[in-house]
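#dry-run=false #mode=assembly
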Amino acid sequence: MLRYVYGDQLQNFPRLAASMFRDRADQFKTRLGWDVSVDADGFEKDEYDTLNPLYVIWENADGTHGGSMRFLPTTGRTMINDHFAHVIGGGEIRSPFIWECTRFCLSRDADSRMAALLVVACGEIMQHFNVEHFAGVFDARMVRIYRLLGASPDVLGSVGEGREQISVGLWHYAAADSKKILHRAGVSMALSQLWFDRSFGTQKTAQLAQVG
Amino acid sequence: MTTNTQLETILEALEQAEGLPAMQASIEQLRDLMDVDHMVYHWVDSAGDHYGCGTYSDAWREQYLKMNYIRIDPVITGCFRIFNAVDWKDLDWSSKASRNFRADSIEFGIGNQGFSVPIRGPKGQFALFTVSHNCDDAAWEAFTETKRRDLILIAHLFNKQALELEKERKTEAQVASLSPREVDAITLLAMGYSRAQVAENLSISEHTVRVYIESARFKLGAMNTTHAVARALSRGLIVV
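#status=ok
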C-alpha cells in the first residue's frame, strides 16, 4: 500500500523507514554513484530529511520499502533554492502551489508497476492539496524513465553534458493522464483514494470502518 | 465575477499594509467577503513570540491564554510540523483535554467547523492561517472544496506581508519608541505589578493605564500585554 508519512511519523514504521533509507543508499550511492553520505546504519540521509518532509512510500506486503519519494514546500528551504539556483539562471522557485520532489527511489527488486504507483500518489497530492506543480532535480538517466512513464517534466534549466547533465524540471498534473497512470499502476481510483485517506483523514476512514 | 474582483482589491490592499492595523482591516474584510465567522493569521517565531491578526474576540483570546490552550490545541499541535492544509475534522481530538477545549471554543463562538493552512517560511518559520465557522458538515465541505485554493493563497499573502513587516520591525526596533508614560506602565508590568498597582504608583486611573498599555501594545505589534512586555524587554525599550 501507499503510505504518506511525515518525517516525525517514520518512527511508527521502523521497518519501512530503515529499508527506505537503505534502498536510497543502494540507489544513489551504489548504483548511481552520487556523492551522498551513508551513515553507520547504511542509511542515506541528508539535511532535508531533518526538515520533516513528507514521504510517499510504497509498503510491500512484508512491511519493507518498495519505492519512495520526498516532498518539501518551496516556501521553505528546498534543495533547488539552496544548491541548484544556478541551474535555473539564479532565480528561486517559491510558491505555495509548488512542492519540491526529491529522492525518487525504487528498490532493486521493485515490481514494474512501482514508478507508476508513485506517480499515482503525486496525482493524489496535487488534487487534495492544490499542488499545481512539482519541482525537482534530475540527471540524464532519469529522462528516459520519465518519458516511459508519460511524466516528462518541463525543463527549466540544465548544466553539464551527456550523462553528467543535471536539470531542474517542473511536473504538472493533467487530469486526463490519471486514468492512464492508474491503469499502468494497476490500482483503482477508489483504492488510491483509500490509501490517501488512511494517511491524512480520520473522518472518511472512520465512516468506511462503520460501514464495513 | 464581482467576488473575484473584490478579493483582488482586498489582497492588493493587504500587500500595501504598513502595519498590523492594516492587516487587521484586511482580514476583517476577507472574513466578511468569504462569509465565515472567523479568520485568523498567526505566526509563532523561534523565540516563542506571537504575531498576527484575526477576528477572534478578546474574550476568547484571554481565555486561550488563561487556560494555556496552546499546549493542547490540536490545531496548533497537529499543524506545527506539517505543510498540507487540514480540515479540523482530520485532526486528533481524541483526548479529553482537546474535547473540552473544543467545547469551550464553541461556547466562545469560534464555530464547530475549521480549516487551517500551515505555512512554512524561510529559516524554519512556522505560521498558521485559519478560517472557522458554524454550519453543518455538508455546507462546510462545499465551502472548503471550492475555496481551498483561495484560502491557501490568502494564507501565504498574509505571511508574506508579515515577513516584510518583520524586516522593517527589526530595523526600526531601535527607533520604535514608547512615550515616557508607556515606558513607565510597561516597566511596572514587567516587574510583576498588577494594573491597579501600576495606576497607584503612577498616580493615574486604571483606565488611563489601560490606554497606555494598549497604545504600547500597538506600537510593538504585540498580540497581548504579556507579549508587549516581552517585546519591550527584548528590544531594550524598558529596563527592569
